[in-house]
Write a structure and sequence with these properties.
By secondary structure, this protein is an alpha+beta fold. Helices cover 35% and strands 20% of the residues. Bound molecules: flavin-adenine dinucleotide (FAD).
Length: 494
């Protein structure tokens, strides 16, 4: 096993999550100097069964799965000095239907079905989704939760996310952020499985033979040398391009002035490499904005905070949308507020029950008032109107949402326990729904829908699963379920 800097990396990943995406660059550069002492694991290339590009969630799941399904020699190339990519920042959880944990939770969660999960995902994605891929992901989602369990990764608490008809978002038992929990544990599994990991080794080009098959990958090693890996199969798991404003400008010029929640490593080069090797890129203009982003640093305020009951108010002290609507709808509603000011409003009970909020407070992102009037005074919001808004909302919570003026029936939680907190939010670039065109084997396809031998892809680098709008919790489901599938199918192709 060739992994350098493991203990530092695990700590860096967890710390980065606690701090948010804006902190990753700093973490990574600190780490680079700390890691400079280590001389091991400089990539020299060579012959492998499977080479995985990118050590985020999809990369680690697919590498493990490839190994467990018969690939003997497996390597991961990671361009940064820190593992985890955007997966580090996943805050709320992983959607899955029909799990043992939903049964244990009881209530609406226990009534969930694969069909309802498929239907919610298709509706959320405006039916732009590839239904075959969605069906595969949803059908295998409970097995994905079990697979994680078998690897010592337990997501046993169930909560509700926007666009979900019932609670199906799985997170750690202590309700903490999912990414900070799963990345170090997956990393440990990768290490134990004997997978070779090469850090600070960006893949630069896929090697294609004269028949159009991918037979390897070129990379730059941590000493700056060009190396070539020959591989029976390459799995591209390099994530999206949500931090590459040149690409965003190319596909969505209207979003270039937005902040981004994404890790610096989300530069989209996996898509470009795959395209040069013949893969079709689909739905590249489908870029999701997330409605609760702290505008000063791009930090995401996880959807689970709304799922626990938080509401959005404007500067008149009014709610203006169903906060549990899909991200595109909530983002659009925010942009219509007269002076563009929007706050997420929550109380002490929610704070106590949702551990991640303390992290937002520690970063100075919350405004706190001993009572609602004091909070409103600090925000410049009329307190009487805000109180009336909460009275109406709390009454709707009591009747299960029947009287909610915006039709909110999920994620209801009374807001009545002082002190109160507000977090100023707005939309930020969050997820690339488009990417490499794949089939049900996670194999890359050409524009003519022809399989490219030797080329597989998984995670945010792929397109088609999330359609025009990804539901919160579905990306972690994607990287786990489709990551496992990519590894299995790549191993089977050898
Ligand atoms: C703040 C935030 C919160 C989120 N919360 C949730 C949530 O609660 N639930 C949910 O379902 N989804 C959530 N998401 C989305 C989800 O985290 C991502 O879509 C998912 O983790 C992407 O995983 P991935 O493995 O495909 O890519 P990543 O995790 O981004 O990993 C890609 C890796 O590839 C590396 N790489 C890139 N280019 C190269 C190259 N050329 N060579 C080698 N390596 C390369 C990167 O450095 C990175 O380590 C969130 C996203 C963000 C940003």
């Amino acid at each position: 096993m060739k992994m350098n800097r493991r203990s530092f990396l695990a700590a860096a990943g967890a710390a980065a999550v606690a701090l948010g995406a804006g902190a990753l660059g700093a973490q990574a550069s600190e780490k680079t100097s700390a890691a400079a002492d280590s001389a091991d694991a400089v990539a020299k290339g060579g012959d492998y069964d499977v080479v995985v590009l990118g050590m985020g969630g999809a990369g680690m799941c697919s590498a493990l799965s490839a190994k467990e399904n018969g690939a003997e020699k497996v390597a991961i190339l990671e361009k940064l000095a820190v593992v985890g990519g955007n997966t580090n920042f996943s805050s709320s959880g992983m959607n899955a239907a029909g799990t043992k944990y939903q049964q244990a939770a009881g209530g609406d969660a226990a009534t969930d079905t694969v069909d309802l999960f498929i239907s919610d995902t298709m509706t959320g994605g405006k039916n732009w989704n590839n239904k075959d891929l969605v069906t595969y992901m949803c059908t295998n989602s409970a097995a994905g939760i079990d697979w994680l369990d078998e690897h010592g990764i337990t997501l046993s608490d169930v909560t509700t996310m926007g666009g979900a008809s019932v609670p199906r978002c799985h997170r750690p038992a202590d309700k903490s952020a999912v990414g900070a929990y799963i990345v170090p544990l997956l990393q440990e599994q990768v290490e134990q499985a004997g997978i070779d990991v090469f850090m600070e080794t960006p893949a630069t080009e896929l090697v294609v033979d004269d028949k159009g098959a991918v037979t390897g990958v070129k990379a730059t090693n941590s000493d700056g040398e060009e190396v070539t890996f020959n591989a029976g199969a390459v799995i591209v798991a390099t994530g999206g391009f949500g931090a590459n404003f040149d690409m965003i400008g190319m596909y969505r010029p209207d979003l270039v002035d937005y902040v981004t929640t994404n890790a610096n490593g989300s530069q989209g080069e996996g898509m470009v490499m795959a395209s040069k090797a013949g893969a079709n890129l689909i739905q590249m203009d489908q870029i999701q904005t997330h409605p609760t982003v702290y505008q000063e640093n791009g930090a995401l305020i996880g959807e689970a905070v709304r799922g626990a009951g938080a509401v959005l108010i404007n500067s008149a002290g009014d709610r203006f949308t169903n906060e549990m609507g899909t991200r595109d709808v909530v983002s659009a509603a925010e942009l219509k507020q007269p002076d563009g000011k929007v706050w997420l409003l929550l109380d002490q009970a929610l704070y106590d029950n949702t551990p991640v909020v303390a992290k937002y407070e520690a970063r100075g992102m919350t405004v706190k008032g001993d009572d609602l009037a004091s909070l409103c005074g600090q925000l410049g919001v009329p307190a009487d109107e805000a109180q009336a808004t909460l009275d109406t909302y709390n009454a709707a919570v009591a009747d299960g949402g029947a009287s909610d003026p915006f039709g909110r029936t999920t994620g209801l939680g009374a807001l009545e326990t002082a002190p109160f907190y507000a977090i100023p939010v707005g939309p930020g670039i969050h997820h690339c729904m488009g990417g490499i065109y794949i089939d049900g084997d996670n194999q890359a396809l050409t524009i003519e829908k022809k399989k490219i031998d030797g080329l597989f892809a998984a995670g945010e680098v792929t397109g088609g699963i999330h359609g025009a709008n990804r539901l919160g919790g579905n990306a972690v489901c994607d990287i786990v379920v489709m990551g496992i599938n990519a590894g299995k199918k790549a191993a089977a192709s050898l």
